[in-house]
Specification:
- The strands form two sheets. Strands 1, 2, 5, 8 and 9 form a five-stranded mixed β-sheet that branches.
- The protein is globular.
- It has about 140 residues and is α+β, with helices and mostly antiparallel strands.
- The protein has a single domain, classed as Immunoglobulin-like, CATH 2.60.40.180.
- Strand 1 and strand 2 form a beta hairpin.
Length: about 140
């Protein structure tokens, strides 16, 4: 009987903890596709900076692309704290090309954009050693 009571209480606490646990939601993601190789670019450091009121930049997060060339967790969404503003993603692509013994024109790529609302923003780049392109994805 005592084991049943302990088990019941454990299950109740587990259920309560699960009910209150929430998954984190992120507002910004990015992706790098190496169009020369025709595949994602893993292991690339990306820094996210925000433009401050005095027009300077402050790095607020740094991540590294996963095996699919993606970063999915920039700018956690929090209630009553909008992430609006002007941001910059800095893609440190020089080391990526060096690791492949590939000459490159760009040591890094900077993409500046503005978040105006609470929707999700996806900022990918297509990359080659001598060029890149970007767009707002979904």
């Amino acid at each position: 009987m005592r084991k049943n009571l302990i088990l019941t209480m454990f299950m109740m606490f587990l259920a309560i903890g699960t009910a209150f646990a929430q998954d984190r939601v992120y507002q910004l993601s990015s992706h790098i596709l190496d169009i020369t190789a025709g595949q994602p670019a893993p292991g690339v450091k990306i820094a996210l900076s925000k433009q401050m009121s005095n027009q300077t930049w402050k790095i607020i997060e740094e991540r590294t692309t996963d095996e699919n060339g993606r970063v999915k967790d920039f700018l956690e969404k929090k209630e009553n704290k909008p992430n609006t503003g002007v941001y910059k993603l800095t893609y440190y692509v020089g080391p990526y090309f060096e690791a492949q013994s590939q000459d490159s024109f760009y040591p890094f790529v900077e993409v500046v954009f503005e978040i105006k609302d609470g929707s999700h923003y996806h900022v990918p780049i297509t990359l080659s050693p001598y060029g890149y392109s970007t767009y707002r994805g979904n």
